[in-house]
Amino acid sequence: MVEETFTSALIIDDGPVAPADLAGVALGGRPVALSREPRWMDKLTRSRRVLERALSAGHPVYGVSTGVGGDSARAIDAAHSHDFAYRIIRQHGCGLGPAFSAIESRAIVFTRLVSLAKGYSAVRPDLLAALCGLLNNGVMPVIPSLGSVGASGDLTPLSYLASVLAGEREAYLDGEIMPAVRALDQAGLRVHTFAPKESLAIMNGTSVMTGVGLLTLDRLNRTYDLCERATSLAAEILLGRSQAFHETIHRLKGHPGQTATAEAMRTALSGSRLIDSGKAEDRIVQDPYSIRCAPHAIGAARDAAGWATTLLARELNSVNDNPIIDPDGGETLFGGNFYGGHVALAMDLTKIAAASVADLLDRQFALLVDSRVNMGLPETLVDYGGCGLKALQITCSALTARAVQRTGSDTVLSRPTEVYNQDKVSMGLHAVQNAAEIATLLQQVLATLLVALSNAARSRDEARLSPCGRHLLEQVRAHCPVLTEDRRLDHELEALVQAMDRQAIETMP
Q: What pLDDT sits at residue 217?
């Protein structure tokens, strides 16, 4: 987790927030506070009154005075509405699988807070304040990662957020998992008492897929920065040609991500005396595609991530529960804004793009050990008589294969559930989780390539490397020194991946 020092809390009302705000809260620990603006507080009050008038008039309100899903024809009388609100939470306590991390949980809580604060969910300011209390005191729900099909939102995972507010199930606090009621007590927080609709408002939305998806996109964008630097270093070590990164070439193609990647690589190669140093008679006229077309491959992934971030930023700022209570029109509207189709499609594209970059790096590793194209490097990439990094290439390819295998579309894998009430579902959280796994696999592939490049550079005159290349090598070698004999590398590779997550490997000197 990257801790930052913030001079002020992020003020929450019905205004827009940016993905950078989510990152500040989830990764940087920025505090949040509710706005005191009278206009916004009045909007919350009016939304609540619309709901209460509908209930007083005996109008059916889904999930409040009726059952849920296919059971919505059944009336819930007012005397049992309080108990029903808690039964909705408890019946969804059936998630399985590894829990989301405390950082991911922070993103989820923040994302739900933003949506409910728009003023169309008929929740009281007390509930919004309770969500702020969780974030500001580090009480994060322990949320199993499996159990959502991405329609009716992330019902099961979000029930774990609702349950912690109610003092049930488990929570993270200070790095420890403990009963939620104890965590609330230690943090000086009270158990929240849900009013009608509030528990459903917490659960019936896209906040898990959106929060975790935005964290994944943030991680991928930072990883793409390092992929550009690693590719630039590979071009130097392989005595590649800089013309492939010429500004004119990429300006004429016109894609923003490609142009940005080519510019980043030109900057990284500045000052290199190895690039363009190979003798023309010793090689083919152009470098292989994994070097020459790297701006196109990484740039396409950058553009995909940019499009996905735009969609998820819109989802972050959306009203995505059901029913929607319109404070201006005075209506109670039943719809499907909890559907995660946009998130699913965006993250399907994201994971394909990230796996393509992993494949690019895998091909660069293959160039380094191929005597036909590696400009005289030893195939072991070390200068002693051992096996060197031959086994590491196998690991690199295995990780890449797994990333590619995870790219199958989740969007088209709809499974009818809940007695055909949820007969078309988005699978949005599945798409996000597969994208998150591919992001990790990409980091692991990158770690193997960086170790290979670090050792291969010893066969060159490192004084002729670019300043950026030398700086990158220093950082890699701080975690994984150059091999002088064959040794295990797993712990050092993991340290490199963790350094990427901590942003401890800088992209430029």
A: 98
Report yes or no: 1 and 29 within 8 Å, Cβ to Cβ: yes
Task: Spell 54-65 as b/e; 16+ CB within 10 A means b.
Answer: bbeeeeebbbbb
Cis? peptide before 323, omega within 30° of 0: yes
Residue type, 246: H
Give me the pLDDT at residue 85, please: 83
Cβ proximity of 102 and 110 under 8 Å: no
Is 369 in contact with 390 (CB distance < 8 Å)?
A: yes
Per residue, the 3-state secondary structure of 305-345, as one string, reads HHHHHHHHHHHHCCCCCCCEECCCCCCEECCCCCCCHHHHH
Q: State the distance between the two ends of the chain, measured CA to CA, in whole angstroms.
A: 22
Predicted local distance difference test score (pLDDT) of residue 5 = 62
Q: How far is CA 471 from the centre of its chain?
A: 28
| 210, 219, 220, 340 from 216: Cα distances, Å | 10, 5, 6, 16
**Cα–Cα distance between 436 and 206 in angstroms, integer?**
17
Neighbours of 333 (CB within 10 A): 12
Low-confidence ranges of the chain (pLDDT < 70): 1-5, 67, 69-73, 78-80, 280-283, 418-421, 507
Q: Which residues contact 225 (CB under 8 A, 6 or more apart)?
A: 264, 507
**Known active-site residue 224:** no
Q: Which amino acid makes up residue 48?
A: R
Candidates 268, 264, 498, 489; CA nearest to 386 is 489
What is the C-alpha separation between 473 and 482, in angstroms, rounded? 10
Determine contact, residues 198/127, Cβ cutoff 8 Å.
yes
- pLDDT at residue 4, rounded to an integer: 59
Report which residue type is found at 394: I
Catalytic residue among 62, 160, 224, 339: 62
Helix (H, G, I), strand (E, B) or coil at 58: coil
Q: Are 455 and 368 in contact (CB under 8 A)?
A: no
Look up tokens 């712990």; give the residue. Answer: 491
Task: Say what the pTM is.
Answer: 0.95
**In terms of residues, how long is the chain?**
509
- Name the amino acid, one letter, at 393: Q
Is the N-terminal amide bond of 16 cis, ω within 30° of 0? no
Question: Minimal CA–CA distance to 335: which of 192, 127, 152?
Answer: 152
For 232, half-sphere exposure in the C-beta direction (CA atoms, 13 angstrom radius) is 31
Q: What is the DSSP letter of 422?
A: B
Structure-token pair, residue 505: 């490997």
How confident is the model over 390-420, as pLDDT tens digits?
Answer: 999 999 999 999 999 999 999 998 777 766 5
Question: How far apart, in whole angstroms, are the C-alpha atoms of residue 438 and residue 56?
Answer: 51
